[in-house]
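User: Hello! I'm new to structural biology and keep hearing that structure can be predicted from sequence alone. Could you demonstrate with Alkylation response protein AidB-like acyl-CoA dehydrogenase? Please show me the input and the output so I can see what each looks like.

Assistant: Of course. The first part below is the input, the amino acid sequence of Alkylation response protein AidB-like acyl-CoA dehydrogenase. The second part is the output, the predicted structure written as tokens.
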Amino acid sequence: MSLTQEQSELREAVRSFLVERPGAPWSRFAAELGVAGLAVPEEYGGAGCGMAEVAVVCEELGRVLAPYPYLSTAVLAAEAIRTAGDRCAMARLLPGMADGSITATVLFPDDADLTFSDGKLTGTARYALDAEVVLAYVDGELIEAVPSSRTPHTTLDQTRPLTTLVFDAVPAVRVGDGAACGRVRDLGITGLAAEQVGGAARCLETALAHARQRHQFGRPIGSFQAVKHKLADLLLLVESARSAAQAAARASGDDLPVQAAIAGSYCTEAYLTAAGENIQIHGGTGVTWEHSAHRHFKRATADAQLFGPPQAHRGRLAAAAGL
């Protein structure tokens, strides 16, 4: 699947920003490019685009292992608030999310043990993507609450921090209906799959560049048949993963859960394989702190657990097929 002209221009704008302004704060990235509000309706300061455009940004962020809260804010929270249907909540939260002044995250029932009673939220989310605004799907409703404590974890992938959020009977407000919980999670899987494609593509690029430059026995190592086969297999793997991620980003209705599960399974394993082969082609250099190869391997390993491992996604596919 090819990108439209507008999507290609978006990709180039994001890539240029990330190359020219490495380390720029989230607020600057979101405000200068307007990408935080891609999925936010125009009446709330966004662009009113769809997941196909959001996935373009996700892929570019995955290439450079950007630590921005894009997945939690622009993918999960924006869709959760939009589909919850509470216009007051949309007016209060979406404009700030669109201009980068507010970050937000979403907790799902499978990832948190929470109860909502008498206007109070109680429970714990042990491994959450942290943000200023915390939304949670509880008992069929979307709830907003301020955690009573936040405890950061020391994680394998330091570019995507995780936090334990504790809610000790804290005041909470209903911000809408929670019927779209499954859809929001599937879009999160789709956004993550796009990030994984970006990471896998970058691994292939760096492995190919090293194979051209590194000489052994008087020849570039890329001229050896075994290395050629590795690189050819990686190219097929990355392009297949990109097709799966793009299909999920363009899916809608009943097709989204199936396409998201396919992308979640295939792209996760593709990134793990690409990251591992990148290290193998680089040899000892690939695991040094100065090289990006080991950081991609850590991100790929951590990503494999974020919305469930590949086996869980395949289990969903089997259930959908009646197997």
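User: So the tokens describe the shape?

Assistant: Right, they're a compact way of writing down the 3D structure. Reading them back into a model, for example: The chain is about 55% helix and 15% strand.
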